[in-house]
Amino acid sequence: MKKHNFGAGPCILPQSVLAAAAAAIKDFNGIGLSVLEISHRTKDWEAVMDECRALWKELLNIPDGYQVLFLGGGASMQFMQVPYNLLNKKAAYLDTGVWANKAAKEAKLFGEVEIVASSKDKNYTYIPKGYTISKDADYFHITTNNTIYGSEIHEDMDSPINLVADMSSDIMSRPVDVSKYALIYGGAQKNVGPAGVTFVIVREDILGKVDRTLPSMMDYRIHAKEGSMYNTPPVISIFIMKETLKWLKSIGGVPEIQKRNIAKAELLYDEIDRNKMFVGTVNTEDRSLMNICFVMAEGYGDKEEAFMEFAKKAGMVGIKGHRSVGGFRASTYNALPIESVQAMVDCMKEFEKQNA
Amino acid sequence: MKKHNFGAGPCILPQSVLAAAAAAIKDFNGIGLSVLEISHRTKDWEAVMDECRALWKELLNIPDGYQVLFLGGGASMQFMQVPYNLLNKKAAYLDTGVWANKAAKEAKLFGEVEIVASSKDKNYTYIPKGYTISKDADYFHITTNNTIYGSEIHEDMDSPINLVADMSSDIMSRPVDVSKYALIYGGAQKNVGPAGVTFVIVREDILGKVDRTLPSMMDYRIHAKEGSMYNTPPVISIFIMKETLKWLKSIGGVPEIQKRNIAKAELLYDEIDRNKMFVGTVNTEDRSLMNICFVMAEGYGDKEEAFMEFAKKAGMVGIKGHRSVGGFRASTYNALPIESVQAMVDCMKEFEKQNA
């Protein structure tokens, strides 16, 4: 039976990427060695780094003056690395969920942190609006997509100060006006590859402004200067990221994937709104196109486990909601085909027919 | 033609490990999903983490009271993470080369650093002896194998203070008395896997003694408590590390690989010492069993490029010496078969016959 992988991350990757990864592990570029056992100081490997950087720049239309870095440690490492590089006195954070909170918590070790707005009062089911960003802060940090709660900031906002965005779970899902951001970061393991590599897109002119001395591994300038090879990079994860971006380009790039993502999300949200047995958890206008959260509607709470079993039998994988939301979460990242969403919708319709 | 991969890292891995990695990327455990696209919060993945930790403990005979962590960022990240966790006032470092130096440099941001001894005077061609370790330092840091220069500390030393060792390039190459160390760390990409994951073996009772507040990602205690899954781990690199350790166990574990490593190193060093055209660069008793450095003997300096070409044609890969040493470096890590060393020796003999 075909599996429909709605996992929140590490998540589904295109089949062609998996095939390319397996092939390169057996023999890389036909050189008789595995991609796992070549030096990162070889021309063959440097070509991979160059191609990967070029794909990032092309697909996201990254302007001059920005560096694209590939680092280890995960987005959680960026929660400390961002303030290490940018926080001199005060930083502003938007509290839209667990990950935004974690980012703010780490920043507090490096300076004052102001939470400009929070949606905690309603368990993060909406994106705060109408707040004021303090102009005296060094930067304003947002989490564009909240994987756990299924809310998303859909527009590139205008910020009076340097805008820093954790885009771990919606990078490359829609066109982004990179020029509105001073720094964008995220783990690769949703839309751009496997776990093990973190991307950082940073405008060069914001660096070198803090008073502290930076450890080498924290210093974005060092990683930029060394082409993300100050130390041995996470080779296989970068290789697979490059393959994932190649796939994205081959299907028409970010504008095309945005169309597909909208179609997938509409298909599922429409069913959630139509179906008597389910209800969405997030404020309609803030609904994420990447993580679609829903619970049993009033009166059907006792059917949750039955639907989980029903969906599993139909091949759905990774649809259990995070414990802080409950219910279900269907992650519809770039690589998830619309056929999987249709299978989920069919599943919900059939369950309603049998149980409502 | 068969390639003989003497690369210094990322380096040769066993063929069975490459096959297992490629297979798991296509279908992991027969579950119909790739190891790249499963959640790290699944039982299937947790079993990999558990098995990997258990293999570390078994193969290195790690006593109770130690934690084994798998982190991202590389050994270079440990250059800052070690002092973050352990350096309160002063740390002692042994300067045996570039990497030891880099480690000491990062530590200076966190406290006083005393270089207890250095072999810089002779371009790091020996391991300093007869130095005194300051008892008032928080720890003593050594680099057990110097990948660039080809020198190695062959014995587990007695240190009056907490002993911290970077074993990036000789971990699992010989039995180690872990109880003599407070902390052992290293990148996986030589003897225990691919690039992208770093191991840390740490005695629990040394943690939590510094005055500073640690960022979460720096805190070994958090990673230990969360079983190295405080954040999404570098999944594929850990999977391949686990497979590499399984292979090591299958051939007889660390005592067996030590025998093989000694045999390989003796074979090559004997030829270097016998061959009129080559000369080893390192003090005999400090010669590394992992990175064997040699240059053209006096009078044959003009033949260096010719030998490089000759060796390449015979299938040798990655034998160019580091620019700070010159000549040749043959890395003979665990996965390199003795047949490759024999091929190298044959190559040297033949070259001597044709040129001496």
Describe the fold and architecture.
Two copies of one chain form a homodimer. Chain A contains nine helices and 14 strands. The first copy, chain A, has 356 residues and is of the alpha/beta class. Chain A folds into two domains: 15-250, Type I PLP-dependent aspartate aminotransferase-like (Major domain) (Aspartate Aminotransferase, domain 2); 253-355, Aspartate Aminotransferase, domain 1 (Alpha-Beta Complex), CATH 3.90.1150.10. Helix content of chain A is 35%, strand content 17%. The model of chain A has no long low-confidence stretch (mean pLDDT 97). Chain A starts with a strand and ends with a helix. Chain A is globular. In chain A, the strands form four sheets. The first copy, chain A, has a seven-stranded mixed sheet, with helices on both faces. In chain A, strands 11-12-14 form a three-stranded antiparallel sheet, with helices on one face. Chain A has helices at residues 15-26, 43-60, 75-86, 98-107, 220-225, 235-250, 253-274, 304-313, 338-355, and strands spanning 4-5, 66-71, 90-95, 112-118, 140-143, 145-146, 151-152, 163-166, 183-187, 198-203, 278-280, 291-296, 316-317, 328-331. At the A-B interface, helix 1, helix 3, helix 4 and helix 6 of A face helix 1, helix 3, helix 4 and helix 6 of B.
